[in-house]
Amino acid sequence: MNIAQYTKAASLEEAWELNQNRSAVVLGGCCWLRLSPQRRIAQAIDLSALGLDQIEEGEDSFRLGAMVTLGQLEGHDGLAAFTQGAMKEAVRHIVGTQFRNMATVGGSISGRFGFSDIWTLFLALDAQVELYKGGIVSLADFGQTGPGKDIVTHIIIPKKACQTAYDSLRLNETDFPVIAVAVSADAENVRCAIGARPARAEVVRLPAADVRRQGLEGAAKQIAHSMTYESNMRGSADYRQDMAVVLCRRLLANVLGGDQ
Amino acid sequence: MEYKAINHVVAKKDSQALVTGQPVYTDDLRPKDCLIVKALRSPHARAIVKKVNKSAAEKVPGIVCIVTAEDVPQSRFTIAGQTYPELSPYDRLILDKQIRFVGDPVALVAGTNEDAVDKALRVLRVEYEVQEPLLDFTKALDNDIVVHPEDNWKPLVDVGGDNKRNLVAQACDEHGDVDAVLASSDVVIDRTYHTRQNQQGAMETFRAYAYKDAFGRLTIVSSTQVPFHVRRVVANALEIPKSKIRVIKPRIGGGFGSKQTVVMEVYPAYIAWLTGKPAYMIYSREESMTVSTPRHESQIRVVLGASKDGHIRGIFLDSLWNAGAYGEHTPTTVTLSGHKSIPLYNAAEAFRFSYTCVYTNTIAAGAYRGYGATQGLFALETAVNELAAALHMSPVALRLKNMVRQGQVLPAYFNETALSCTLDKCLERVVQMSGWKDDCPRQVLSNGHIRAIGIATAMQGSSISNVDVASVTIKVNDDGFYSLNIGATDMGTGCDTILAQIAAECLMCPVDNVVTYGVDTDTSPYDSGSYASSTTYLTGNAVVKTCQSLIQRMKERAAVKLGAANVDDLEFDGKAITDLSTGKKITLKDLGNDAMFMNDIALEATESCYSPTSPPPYMAGAATVDVDPETGHISLVQYDAVVDCGTVINPALAKVQTEGGIVQAIGMALTENIQYTPSGRLQNNSFMQYRMPTRMDLGQINVEFEPSYEPNGPFGAKSIGELVIDSPAPAIAHAIYNATGIWLRDLPMTAEKLYKAMQL
Amino acid sequence: MTITYWLNGKKATADVAPGLMLYDFLRSQGCYSVKCGCETTNCGLCTVWVDDVPMLSCALLAVRIDGRHVTTLEGLQDEAKEFAFYMGREGADQCGFCNPGFVMNVLAMVRKLDAPTEEEIKEFLSGNLCRCTGYMSHMRAIKAYFKAKGKEVRA
After folding, report:
1. Which residues in chain B are closer than 8 Å to A173, comparing Cβ atoms?
2. Which of A137, B16, B383, B425 is deepest in the core (most CB within 10 A)?
3. What is the percent of chain B where pLDDT is above 90?
4. How far is A96 from chain C (nearest CA, A)?
5. What pLDDT, on a 0 to 100 scale, did the predictor assign at position A260?
6. Looking at the structure, do residues A208 and A238 belong to the same domain, yes or no?
7. How close does chain C come to B74, measured CA to CA in Å?
8. Residue pLDDT, tens place only, C14-35
9. At what angle do helices B266-275 and B227-238 cross, to 10 degrees?
10. Which residues of A are less than 8 Å from B755 in CB distance?
11. Is residue B117's pLDDT more than 60?
12. Last residue of a domain, one of A158, A191, A210
């Protein structure tokens, strides 16, 4: 790797200032740094000394530091209980345990990858992104803008009473998803996020009553058909769309109860 | 028969070193001052290199030399690791101005460090005349685009090739009047199957280093299955005498046939020869996946004719074979698609096997475990299962009615006699293991998934009959321990241990009393190499023969010591030699030590052997799959396999061979896809994009043996290494059919393909 | 940059370029057990422990081990030899090239999981590819090793 300058930031302010350099890069777990070996990084910024590796469970929310690893998410009892296991399901297919011990939530969110399981689940959970200068923004809005020259410090998952479920289809167990779907429902509303279309996940919100009225199949179609799909090496656009319907319907049944 | 050393589990001699991570591989051993060699590769599938501007690159500090097509020797050679007479065409140069696939090398850059070489590669400027590539192998024959237009294209043996027609090889083999038989058959099915290139995926990528020794000779240390062929190929490429080259094989991190081709040794060897400096080249994973030699893509048509009661009367199998850019292993792999499949149905009255192999501007294919039989058996076994469905007959009963039986002469297998065959028992046993029932191989689970079983059988050979040569040297040392010197290459398969077990059985000693050494072409006895399922069978035979000679020599020396009048009166029992006429004896230990004192009989023997036959090992496999009918998702729940490899020399290693081959084949069947861009660039060029099975993808694999006794093999043994990759793809295709009623005839059988077929 | 770290229990300092990968650094320090199989984080051959957590050294910058403890198989020879008995008995070592990274993860797993199921074991090790064995013999060796360690593997 070609890195000219490496700084372990002593404060967020220092990190932010360094990041104003045009070819500065905030490092996460560095898992895919090597995928672009020709890339030249003038300034690498390491946040690992800033205590951002904690999962704070509060009354109203989980606050995940940007340097929390996917492995920490996978093993966290509070998140497991809150998501009824969906958190682990969304993470356990990602490459392997060693990878998940390195990859960070901040990196996964900042990368805004289309195939991201984390993005898909967090969207359905109405997650928010906390930026050092920019304050708190919704994940959906963050998807449009990205971090820019700001620094993602935390991801916030509001603790609303909800039922959540996650499912994905893959060529094999540790591959990127062909399609990824997360559904989360509280008493009034259902949020359904579909990722790996292969574009980045988007979320649709429907009143739970609408879903019940339409029936699960109808609602799944309405949700899945409201998004666009494309073809890539892992699947065609029409297969993805059909699978989005199937997984959506199954997850709706899972969180709302009732017959598939 | 009660054996002492063979037929027992013995841990591989290197297992402690390997599991504890000792530095025993090529990259661990290389001198640290080697020049680093890398290749600049074409981004175009077909082009002519007009000009390479080296001036900026040569100025990069640390760069020692840059060579291009103008600099290299101009006689063509093949990099296929094959024995004389070489059947693969001589169609390569070290560097060629004509680019034939994405990744073909344009220049070699050598420098004192990797950073310098990378920098030089970035500033090398190449001017290409880009040409339209030929990517579709079904349109290659007599296409206007000629992949090998050169006039010095040279086949050593006429295999029906013609480079101006893009034709590498073409032939037809038949027995009886197959057209008449098919015309008079009650039921005829005619199907076409497509298999893709597959990556061997050895965990250690290709790598080698070369240096000149004190005698001015070139020593090459390489991760190879074929050290003796490396010597020949490098000599041909560099146009230097073979006597100038020595090849050493350390531990190898897997081969599966990929290292039966001399994929890259030529490059560091050439640089070391030119510069006189040690030179090292290591392929990245991307290079290993884009410029090595994967399994040949095939399109195979199978026509079967049968009577209503299930007698398979006629078989016609026609293979179209994609060589890719160069012809390595093409004329040979294709023959196995028929010769290692059709003989399974020996009850047929007539057969015809024809094939055509063509060049295209895709990756040059080569050797991969199964070596063409895998493609042929996917096609033929699926066709037989399709025939069973057409006949409304059990595929098990259909096979039992038609399959090869011990004692039969096999017209489709060079009229060899099947002297050892328990395929019938293998099939019957695998049916029991899998829980297959003819009336209900299908079950709908409470979650809506469908579980179903599929069946297939397979055969392979044991060495290449009347071609392969194996030689072994064994000597007696101080205190009577033996050195076993072999030219066969252990690539993780365990042959260093297996051959020692065979020697220990013959010499009636513990396996630890035999040390194995291999391979150094300067000192090892000649061996064709570890491929073609030859090592246990053929080199094993050479071990037996050598032991017999050695025992005779030991008796001759003992006769001198014991004053015995007649060598025939002496008996060797593993520990001592006794003169039965006098009762006098000399221990092995004393004999070994004594041989170093006033002795004129070398306690050493070397023997070579070849085999006039290639006895097939057999296998039956049953796949249990779980299909989600709403998504098409297929998961492998269980695979049962029963293998006839003759006498099992090392049950643990034979079992692992079987499990490993099955899992590679599961990848081939379900997930390992090859996708080219319209311009001919391979997209599945990493382990991120080429999906080999992980341990999470697999259910249970159960392996059993039904040993026959092969009279031509060492202690009745046959091969196993390749056979075991042949049955899963057709068994899984069959299971999917039993689950869904759909035949997937194009590998890999992905969820999307199944889903879409189910929508029709 | 100057880093201070512990390699297999021994404290050391080194001057490393900021772009140097831990994999390359460890091999330069003589830790030849650490292998590379893919360059895309998919194979697990380069697994080492950083502060006792298994990680991929091919994707970790060497500067990141500053102040941390790195363990390679060179530092776990006694345990590796013990496990090698079970691997050898099953013939599960095969070509051996994936073994060091795999063993590093197995030794981490035996510390972390108490009475795992086979599925949990598969999941824990899914990032360790092997092309020789087909994985079944690994499971047999692991089960025997767990048993020898007084741990149970649930069905």
Report:
1. 694, 696-697
2. B383
3. 97
4. 4
5. 42
6. yes
7. 35
8. 999 999 999 999 999 999 999 9
9. 50
10. 239, 242-243
11. yes
12. A158
Q: What is the pLDDT of residues B360-411, one digit of tens each?
A: 999 999 999 999 999 999 999 999 999 999 999 999 999 999 999 999 999 9
pLDDT of residue B1: 73
Task: Indicate yes or no: CB of C33 within 8 angstroms of CB of B11.
Answer: no
Q: Which domains does chain B have, with CATH numbers?
A: 15-22+465-609 (3.30.365.10), 31-131+206-282 (3.90.1170.50), 297-462+614-759 (3.30.365.10)
Task: Please indicate, yes or no, whether residues A193 and A248 belong to a single structural domain of this protein.
Answer: yes
Name the stretches of chain A with pLDDT < 70: 258-260
Write down which chains contact chain C via at least 3 CB pairs under 8 A: A, B
Residues A74, A129, single domain; the answer is yes
* B367 vs B498: CA distance, rounded Å: 23
From chain A, pick out residues whose CB is under 8 angstroms from the CB of C66: 8
Domains (ranges, CATH) in chain C? 2-73 (3.10.20.30), 75-148 (1.10.150.120)
CA separation for the pair B147, B133 (Å, rounded):
8
| pLDDT 10s digits, B578-592 | 999 999 999 999 999
Q: What was the ipTM of the complex prediction?
A: 0.98
Is the Cβ of B689 closer than 8 Å to some Cβ of chain A? Answer: yes
Interface test with A, best of C42, C126, C129, C130 (most A CBs within 10 A): C126
Look at residues A120, A140, A158 and tell me which one is the last residue of a structural domain: A158
**Which of C55, C71, C105, C119 best probes binding to A when mutated, by most A CB atoms within 10 angstroms?**
C55
d(C-alpha A124, C-alpha A112), whole Å: 15
Distance from the A95 Cα atom to the nearest Cα atom in chain C, whole angstroms: 6
Q: What is the pLDDT of residues B38-80, one digit of tens each?
A: 999 999 999 999 999 999 999 999 999 999 999 999 999 999 9
Quick check: B752 and A246 CB within 8 A?
no
- Is the bond into B85 cis (omega within 30 degrees of 0)? yes
Q: What is the pLDDT of residue B640?
A: 98
Q: For residue A110, what is the domain's CATH number? A: 3.30.465.10
Q: Are residues A251 and A204 part of one domain?
A: yes
How many domains, in total, are found in chain A? 3
Structure token pair of residue A241: 């769309």
Polymer length of chain A: 260
Give the chain C residue nearest A175 (alpha carbons).
C42
- The verdict on a CB contact (< 8 Å) between B687 and C132 is no
Which chain C residue lies closest to B251 (C-alpha atoms)? C95
Q: Is residue A192 domain-shared with residue A150, that is, in the same domain?
A: no
Selected for mutation to probe chain A from B114, B115, B196, B631 (highest A CB count within 10 Å) is: B631
pLDDT digits (tens, 9 = 90+) for B442-455: 999 999 999 999 99
> How many CB atoms sit inside 10 A of residue A141's CB?
10
Q: Do both A125 and A167 map to the same domain?
A: no
Separation in Å, CA of B70 to nearest CA in chain C: 33
Question: Chains B and C: how many Cβ contacts under 8 Å?
Answer: 182
What's the pLDDT tens digit per position in B709-737? Answer: 999 999 999 999 999 999 999 999 999 99
How many CB atoms within 10 Å of residue B152? 11
- Say which of B25, B201, B701 has its CB closest to residue C134: B701
CA distances from B689 to A118, A197, A234, B604, C23 (A): 20, 17, 9, 52, 22
| Separation of alpha carbons B400 and B320, rounded Å | 30
Q: What residue numbers bound the domain in which A189 lies?
A: 163-256
- How far apart are the C-alpha atoms of C147 and C155, rounded to whole Å? 13
Sort out which chain A residues have CB atoms less than 8 A from B284's CB and list them.
none
Residues A171 and A146 grouped into a single domain: no
Pairing type for strands B125-130 and B47-53 reads antiparallel
Instruction: Specify the amino acid at residue C38.
Output: C
How high does pLDDT run on average in chain B?
97
The phi and psi torsions of B392 (rounded to 5 degrees) equal 55, 45
Q: Chains that contact A by 3+ CB pairs under 8 Å?
A: B, C
Q: Which chains have at least 3 CB atom pairs separated by less than 8 Å from chain B?
A: A, C
CATH of residue A245: 3.30.390.50
pLDDT, residue A258, reads 61
Q: Check whether residue A121 and residue A182 sit in a common domain.
A: no
For C68, other C-beta atoms within 10 Å of its C-beta total: 16
Name the one residue in this structure whose structure tokens are 């079992």.
B655
